[in-house]
Amino acid sequence: MAVNYEVRYPTHPDDAKHYDTERLRKEYLVKDFLKNDEIYFVLSHYDRMMVGGAVPVTKPLTLETIEPLKAPYFLERTELGIINIGNTGKVSVDGKEFILNRKDALYVGKGNKEVIFSSLDSANPARFYLNAAPAHKEFPTKLITLKDAEVVELGSSATSNQRRINKLMVNTVVETCQLQMGMTELLSGSVWNTMPAHLHDRRMEVYFYFDVPENQAVCHFMGQPQETRHLWLHNEQAVLSPTWSIHCATATASYVFIWGMAGQNMNYGDMDVIQPTQLR
Fold this sequence. Notes:
With 280 residues, the protein is mainly beta. It has 2 domains: 4-19 and 29-145, Jelly Rolls (Sandwich); 147-278, Sandwich (Jelly Rolls). The chain contains 2 helices and 23 strands. A 7-stranded mixed sheet has the order 1-3-4-11-6-9-12, with no helix packed on it. Strands 2-20-17-22-15-14-13 form a 7-stranded antiparallel sheet. The longest helix is centred in the N-terminal third of the chain and has 8 residues, at 21-28. The model has no long low-confidence stretch (mean pLDDT 95).
């Protein structure tokens, strides 16, 4: 079964500030990519980051190459990050099997030729969220659970941004070429993430929102600090953040989001903080 995909191209900030809501959503919103019995990717030309999903329900799903990679197999020059947001699943990497419970992560290095996704219970399938980026060096495949994560507590209930940052794929936890991923959990009663907002000219970022309660929504903020825009998102939707764009959000209820980054700098703390009073 072929892997399905779409391609997104970069935009200049001077152009983006003139986009209406429909155009903003077309360029930056990623939705409907977690499809039953399918692997689906959005290939972004922001640092060649790929955002995807694999939901094996009735059968295992094999990660096959796609035409834009110009490669005989998917991971010939690419590294892959996997986080399971569903029920328990299994990922086989060149014959070695890894069991991923909910919120477990798996880093798969370049050079692995066969990756197969499956669910342990088809009635309660796994839902694998995927990020992939170009890689220049092979690193070992590694399973990372929340217990393995580097955890940081930030914010407060007074400012509605109390949150737990689980750094799953950073250089203090696992060796990667450029891919970084983690999961931020908003505590009950808090709705603001990444506040103060920030941007980083050295890498792009993707925010993927899940565990958004039914009938609730997330308002994601983007754009240059002096020219901000917003997008309304629902459960299991993502936003592409160019290097020139801030990224933060609020919501009508608490939620969880996965952040993924690719680019030049592997220092997690390398960011340009934008205070609330600087935003326009």
